[in-house]
Amino acid sequence: MRILFVGRRYWPAVGGVESLMRDLAQELAARHEVRVLSLRIDDGPLHRLSDSLRPPRPFEPFRDGPVSVEPLRLPVTRRALMTPLVCVVIPGLRRYAYGRARVAAAALYAHVVAPLIARRAKGFDVVHVWGGDLLAAAAVRAARLVDVPVVVMPSAHPGQWGDDPASASAYRKADRVLAHLASDAELYRRLGVPASRVVVCGACTRGLRAGEGEAIRRRFSIDGPLVTFLGVRRAHKGHDLLLDAAALVARARHDVTFAFVGPGSRLATPNGARVIDVGGADHEVRDAWVDASNLICLPSSGESFGIAVIEAWSLAKPVVVSDAPALRELVEMSGGGVTVPRDPRALSDRILDLLADPAFCDSLGRRGHACWSSRFTVASVAATLERTYAAVASHGARSDRRLARDVQLETRAGSDVSRLKTVRNDDVPTASVVIATRNRVELLRRCLDALARQATRRTLEVVVVDDGGEPPLAASDLAALPAARLVRGEGRGPAAARNLGLQAAQAPVVLFTDDDTEPDPSWLEAACSFLEGHPECVGVGGATVSPPFDYLYEESVECEVPAYWTCNVAYRKRVLDELGGFCEAFPWPRHEDLDLGYRALRHGPIGFEPRMRVVHVPRPASIAQLVARGRFVASDALLASRHRDRYRVPRVVPRTLVPLLALARDWQRRLRAEGAALARSPRRLARFLLVAAGQLAVAFVTAVATSVEPRGARR
User: Fold this and answer.
1) pLDDT higher than threshold 50 for residue 256
2) CB contact at 8 A, 131 and 174
3) Which of 292, 385, 432, 710 lies at a CB distance of 3.0 to 4.6 Å from 585, suitable for a disulfide?
């Protein structure tokens, strides 16, 4: 395949997009012909006229390994045709430069520049545009001129660039728009790109080299903790916030060093803080600084992804990032760091908390590394690009009308491309998936993205039950899987919500999962194949795995033996109908799934299929949230009373006492297992005691208050 990259800047220019572009070009060039067409390769400042009337520093064509790099040169005569664009710098007019007027500016730029790109694009199989704005408009138009499919990877920073009307117009005309994360994809959907044309491909890094960190520490006499800022010093990156936070940290600890690695103006060192201004550095030096660090900090106001985050994770370094949507999504999916508001005080407090607990920092770093190695390597992202290129190339450059009809989602199973068939009005689905959700839109989107990647040719029906969410789910929230059906619940809990989904399900096999899981591509096929091959089984469960998580700071579950949990189980619908669905009498969202499993076992065995795997995403949990889990003993007690034969509970023993004692034993086991670690970290010991004592106190009050079994329990 012949692939043309069109971008504003390419290596040796420094930046996240530039690094990503180069890594993927090199990877793809091992199997395809890749050519890069770039306006510039320098780190010079970008101005409003950089792409049009003000020519960048010229460069000659060169080869970057297997990749051919050529300049996109705009002759003087062509630049003269763009003279009206000078209005973007004229006082009084410049305020309108990125509003609706930008559409007219982009049309003029595309008219002038597209023919130059089209000459280079002729004969290629696909054009891949990096970025938005004027260049995206020109490149998309150029691809249309020579009838070549075009994909755009905007890497937009909301409120800064990439979300203006001109960029949105270019995205809507492309065959595919490549998003880095679910939050990124949502932005493009809001800008009017049909959901079927948005592909979440992630981002990547080859991984930094370890081994030189100690040399950096010796050279700069760094004996204590090292916090490193990694990135270009642009206003939105937040290096100034970290400088202010450094001064606050210095008041509490004098042994902490802050290093700023990346090009930009020199720093004004705050009083009392130890700051090392490394400045611009080559890859070897950057790798060494990250290797030497205890924390990597990126308090940006906005990111489309945050390459520095996964660079840190490649060396198992924890990160402290702002609560910008993309950064928050990265941390939530991996557990490889923490998020903080963009405030120096909050930032300094979080840094001090983490540095006081090295064991927790190490666990964050390990989670981040696991996430990077499984999701964000160059090979995995390149494979997604190849699938996308193949999909658009097989159809050719299509009109918007044809593209809007293309609602089938493509994935790869081994080396074959398979299609997930979503049910239409006249179809009888092979399997129904029921998901109950409430106020967790971002997690739900990721779950639906995973369902869209199922490697099967079976017809799938997905029923999403919004259990009284505020605000209610909108149809656009299900855009990752356009055929998903939305059912409204009344906020009566997950058991009632799943019963509504069960009533709406039409298939003979019903699978249940939760909004905070990501089913493997083989999940659906594994469940259906097992039930077809084991007609004696009334259901089947699978393995539930989780990235490493800290039970004092996060909530998650994992189990690789039969458990009947509704995050990963399938039943024959006729059996569920006979059982009357889930028992809605459980006072808290806990154990209604085990109760259903125990009752289903009276009708036949429930199998276990290891290939039917889901990943349960850890969620951050405050002390108050963890303490509140003590209330769940009421559901534990109800389960024990409904299934005394399984729990061997004598009838003379009060049912509320059993789970309370079990909870106390659980905390006793944790204390024994973690006693040494708690002794080394007073901060962790204090949190352990707060959570354990609080949870047991709430459990005791709940147990005392729960004196009679709730009425209306269905058996």
Assistant:
1) yes
2) no
3) 710
